[in-house]
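Homework help thread (please don't just give me the answer)

Our assignment gives two proteins as sequence + structure token strings and asks us to describe the second one. The first is just a warm-up. Here they are:
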Amino acid sequence: MISFGRLDEPNYLSVELEPKLQAGRYAREAIRGAFGQVPQRVMAKLLTVVGELVTNAVQHGPGLPIRLRVALDPKACLIRGEVLDQGDASESIPRIREVTINKGGGYGLRLVDAMTSEWRVAQGSTSVQFDIPLQGR
């Protein structure tokens, strides 16, 4: 289970996004504003992971608002995040899919997998949670 700080704590971001093409850009702008102090290589990973997950939520979600939560956990030396599209887990669970060159898809969760120390889908939901280490990998 993912743990987030209180809304009034620094290094915490909670955003609700409309499921539109611009959602990924808005999410990345919010991340830059909230976490500008993290090392550049961590920021690059965080922006990529959030952009991919939000884009997936727009493309594959039910068209409801997308919730993005990200928190810096200094004790664990991690950035923890979650993207929730409010989809029906009985219909579609986020998973790594085959790359489809003709359709240009299948890369999103592969990138997420490569740039995080862990990612997971919360049981019974379409909530994708992730951890990005502040040091190392």
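The one we have to describe:
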Amino acid sequence: MDKPEYYLVSLSGGKDSTAMLLRMLEEGMQIDCILFCDTGLEFPEMYMHLNQLEQDIGREITRVRSNHSFEYLMFDKPISRKGKSLFTQKYGVNYTGYGWAGPGVRWCTTQLKSVPKEVFLRSLRKEYTVIEYVGLAADELYRLERKNNQNPNHRHPLVGWGMTEQDCLQYCYDRGYTWGGLYEHFKRVSCWCCPLQSLNELRQLYRFYPDLWQTLKEWDKRNWRKFRADYSVEELEIRFQFEEECVRFGKPIKGRAFYAELKNRLRAWREIDNE
């Protein structure tokens, strides 16, 4: 006997999934659940956006979270590591916690989003065939090639509507959703502490969100893994401060002379830090 279908909107809170939800509601499409996976690492403006959205549409947004906090997972969770002897040789001690995520080890996505979501969906699948609406924009068709976006029970209405990322942002702006200006600084507004952000996005975080930047520095000092392969958070701060100094004096913030002086400043900082 076939199970009844259950229509779920996967809401990240960003421009694409918000535009998808709003248009689905405007077109009277069936929605049984609006699901948001809360990492605990969203920008404060994102939580304000979700509260505003929930109030405006008159529908509850179901919020699921991991049983463990990001800080526990990064610093304290006991980890059974492959190649334990090599790890100990490299870092000097078998540290607990996952440390900062990296391109090949995106544990935070798994632990803070995928696992809580799967736990929630598992119970639903016992009674229903869950049809999940995913906010994939029409100019992101390359993402459809990824295995996780080829689920036969996934639907991508933005693609069918021909709505690009820019279309989605404007669609939301036209309806009064601004995210407190987040999209004026960032192309994507996912976890504010992500090491995989571009250098420019980290520069925006440093300039416009000093409280979050301070927390980022504190976490980096406690971490056994370097924030990025090229820079620690404090090294990024030295670079950004040097860039601001160059701009004030009309000097370029790239080129051989810039990087030579930056290298000198970073070397001097490391010598002081190691004293």
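TA reply:
I won't write it for you, but here's a hint about the kind of observation we're looking for: The longest helix spans residues 107-125.
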